[in-house]
């Protein structure tokens, strides 16, 4: 059909028409708010580059969950900063570990929210790597049983979903086995399947004290050049028993979200990471862009690409704006 018969602007002429025509939309139900709890902390501390985001003490968790819940957010992802690190990352699976405490409290306060927790070793190991460092490398098969132990201990504390972010081969299978053997068949795994080696994690690393002491994470995180390798990661995580797969970061990786959505039936989550949040807020604070509008656009585009779940530091901000 040729102009002037076809006039696509007819469908955009008013707010009500535009809303009626909306093909995709983000809702509060899609959002997961990340919470960073720090052991031994009193109160809360700003995370430098992340305007409006704080590390909090376990004591503040009830308020934090309450605020998110009041805004209509129904899911949170907990990560921890322990007081003690060691070679084996033992504080990651301690019964009274910081995330275990947070999960137990969250469970008690809010049975009406989905409680998720990150599963990794980097905050807990002296080396700051996501697995156990041995003989000049991150030892894959030494690390996966420990990740299983972390997951089982979080399940014991009452978590609904564990989310492994270590990028060890076989971590999902090891975690599924550890969960099942400890009687937690109903705890789901949201695998951080395609966690790319990215420059956009640095605000989180600084806040969570989890930057590697030496070397980088190139030998386990995925390079941003390899879409086929990402599909292989998705395929193998699903085979290993992942209930939900994830692409991370978000904004620059939406081609992978789109492809994973089309090729697989598992729900696809996206992690809109700390650096993405920091960029938007930094540009906003300089007056270069409207951060609120940019945030809605970013989340809307992530949804359009096919994401089912969006983990984002902007969840509360977005929930205040969404219709
Ligand atoms: C640790 C972890 C990282 C993030 C989540 N879990 C950092 C890293 O891998 O170095 C990044 C999250 C963010 O930047 O928001 N495994
Ligand atoms: Zn890690």
Q: Could you tell me which ligands this complex binds, including any ions or cofactors?
A: ligand PBG, zinc ion
Shape: globular
Which range best describes the helical content: under 10%, 10-25%, 25-40%, 40-55%, 55-70% or over 70%? 25-40%
How much of the sequence lies in strands comes to 15-25%
**Beta-strand segment tally:** 12
CATH superfamily: Aldolase class I
Strand order of the largest sheet: 1-4-5-8-9-10-11-12
Q: What does the main sheet amount to? A: 8 strands, parallel, barrel
- Tally of domains: 1
Task: Please report the first level of CATH classification, the CATH class.
Answer: Alpha Beta
Overall mean pLDDT: 97
Structural class: alpha/beta
Radius of gyration: 20 Å
Distance between the termini: 35 Å
Count of alpha and pi helical runs: 11
